[in-house]
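Submission sheet (multi-component)
Chains listed below:
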Amino acid sequence: MNALSASRNGAWLLAACLLLGAGGCATYSHGIRQVEQLAAADRPAQALQALEKLELDGDDRLLHFLNRGLLLRQTGDYRGSIAAFEQAKRIMAELEAVSVSETASSLTVTESWSAYAGFPYERVMLHVLQALNHLALDDLEAARVEALQIDLYLRRMHGETRSLPYGGDSFARYLSGLIFEAGNEPDAALVAYRQALRSYEANGLAVPADLQERLLRLTRALGLNAEHAALRERFGREAPPLPPASGEVVAIVASGMVPRRIAVESLGQDPASGRMYRISLPSLLPRPTRLRGLTLAAGERQSRGEPAENLNQAARRSLEARLPVLTLRAISRLVVKEAAADSMEREHGAAAGALVNFLGVLLEQADTRDWSLLPGRIYLAALALPAGRHDLELTLYDGAGRVLETRRYRDVPVEPDGIHFVMLRRFD
Amino acid sequence: MKAKIALLLCTTLLLAAGCATKVERISPDEVRDLSGVWNDTDSRLVSEEMIADMLSRPWLDSHVRAHGGQAPVVIVGDIRNLSHEHINTRTFIADIERELINSGRVQFVAGAEVREAIREERADQDIHASEATRNAMGQELGADFMLVGSINSIIDAEGDTAVKYYQVDLTLISLADNRKVWIGQKKIKKVVEKNSLRW
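Outcome: structure written.
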């Protein structure tokens, strides 16, 4: 075997490996679409089977546990969901460390050869869904742990503002406040509600009227008169006091799916050299949601739901913020691959140069992975009721005011000063 | 060429060794902190120290003197996890119960859940067990004191370093008159540093 044939064999072996690597990304994108379709068709058990068949591990193991936890939750297996989400948390913590090899490969070869570490809003939503799992199991103490972990994460990663710069933490703070309030910790609840207010305003989202009322009620109850007056002026209203010996039911409805991440390709060819150039960057494809409003009723009493989180916006703004870095890396890869093709052409001839150029183009793939089963929007409705047991009716509406669905909950317990949580997830 | 093959083989063997699952049995008393979260060692050390402190305080002798030398009956109530971590308070309660029982200085009765199960069994005995082996209802030992408490934490974290501060508060309350006869506190502080780089 002479040197030239060895070199050619090596190049083909390299090509085969690279093609296999590129194929892996395509399998994930294709496979997760099927999972999404089954989830959207309200077949979470089958979606879970489809997810297991994908056998996501290695770089995609975080996505496996995130999606698994979400689908198990959907099937009602809250304990299984908690276990999957705890695994996801451990992986996310491990992947906070910067990888030397992944950074190098993203600067020279491809963006998609790195372990999926998740976006900050996904990390916060992981805690939110875990808190909702614990609430579904009536374990307020464990839900409280998640509220503290949300705060710890936001403090650690975003010390000064204690909030995500691109949104996705407003509802997390709001829910934290509800958890503290349910546990009879008004001071901790007030701190969380204040942070929720700041986050809604910083992200240009409407401050839910229920949150305004809670802030007004708590500042009044805790004797923070100056703050109460300032809030009353800011909101232009006063909060009615809750009737004595009453509790609350809070309905949390998550709907739709965050925008689909797709690759936008720019392909060109140098007419002189025949070399091809490709830049692949991620973009978002919005997914429409039908749900636009809801009411929560118990007999004569009724409460209208309000938007409490917009993860569509958080996903868009997070990606927009990351795009400059991704573009710089894509240009860096283009330069490195061009230099590699030049080098191969000089040493082994035009065919070798063309092969390296071809592989470079083939490998230029945007990372289109994300936790795509997350809801696009979250709505919340709160209803104060006398302590006792109540039959509830949750009605969901589309944009035209047509009823999408009515759910009935029988014999729901309402404790004095307690909060009972009702949760619903729609994928459409 | 031979050198290259040898290098390749060595690399493969090293990688294979790295991938294999290794299990090593260690003593339960051995301290191994992997992630810096509350672990079995914390649970054991805190329960040992706090119960030792509780049993060395005047309330115990006072009770024994006032009750003709009879050891007090203690029950462990609710111990709340108010920390940042999902702590299994059941193992902590089990550690406390073990320390209390093994001290021999107090009598110990089962908690509410276990009592219910025992009562069911006793009711079952009433119907199915022979007269000679039946245990009668209404002969339970009532507790004199209940031990309640909480596990709190404060975490100061920035970047890759976190200082974790756990505080365990236990209170022994007289069931006769709600008097707090003993308050114990144990603090643990840990500094956890994470790697900022990985391969």
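Remark: Chain B touches chain A at residues 80-86, 155, 157-160, 162, 194-199 (CB under 8 Å).
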